[in-house]
Amino acid sequence: MTKRPKIVILDGYAANPGDLSWEEMEKLGDLTVYPHVPANEEELLEKSKEAEIILINKVPFNEELLKKLPELKLISVQATGYDLVDVKAARALGITVCNAPSYSTPSVVQQVFALLLELAVSTGKYSDSVHKGDWAKAPDFTYCVSPIQELAGKTFGIYGFGTIGQKVAVAAKAFGMNVKVCTRTEYPGKDVQYVTKEELFSSCDVISLHCPLTNETKELINKETLSLMKKNAILINTGRGGLIDEDALAEALNTGKIAGAGLDVLKKEPPLPDNPLVKAKNTVITPHVAWASKEARERLIAISVNNVKAFLEGNPVNKVN
Prior knowledge:
Elements: E1 6-9, H1 23-26, E2 30-33, H2 41-48, E3 53-56, H3 63-67, E4 74-77, H4 87-92, E5 96-98, H5 105-121, H6 123-131, H7 134-137, E6 155-159, H8 163-174, E7 178-182, E8 193-194, H9 197-203, E9 206-209, H10 223-228, E10 234-237, H11 246-254, E11 260-263, E12 283-285, H12 294-312
Parallel strand pairs: 1-2, 1-3, 3-4, 4-5, 6-7, 6-9, 7-8, 9-10, 10-11, 11-12
Helix pairs in contact: 5-8
């Protein structure tokens, strides 16, 4: 009988806090699931030392760490982004790295507009006001807590035009918005206007970031790009926190250089107490949950199971290295 591979999930709580099952993964090998990111490298190595297959969400693996795990043959990232893994070093060491593409697209698109609508309509502020009793005391049938903006007719800018960016464009058009896109790859027939980075930042009422975090896109949002934006502009980021210079954005929000920001990601997660954006004006922040609907997590686990199964059969899929 062929020996069952040792499979370790190093931070399983995010994908499965208890409402889903690891049963299909258990069929593929001897599975150990740890709920949270190891506290330090020593703990990580202790939990990983015998693993042939490791699944991670937010556990970093650099070259030095990979060299200390001679049994490791596969890292399956339970996310679309895989920047936490040194994929070049993994390839050199004969370690396959896979990701989980497109599992969260509908949920991320939904979160983009949840953040935007909260900034444009202030639904939460109105609900809080009613629950405090303000409506019951109002002299008229209605009252204003915060200005309400209509999205129709405004211009929605998208930086990065992969699967999620394209679906965001469809949703924006459904709201009656004009769509401009800045991207390295233009796709025909998408009914959008392709523009330069400078035109995107200077002409759009909403800018949503949908590019990967690379050396070229690191701190894409900085003093220079913020200075190009309209005073009424809203920034949305459901991609990676490193796309933004957080000090520059906080300063722009606090001084009214732009109107608001809706963020699902920050550079360091969880944030430090002194993160400047946590207390910045006109900022809505959610704790990296755009991907985390139950439906998306079900797809994520199914893709992860398939990644492991295909690897064990000698035909790895979703390889990124």
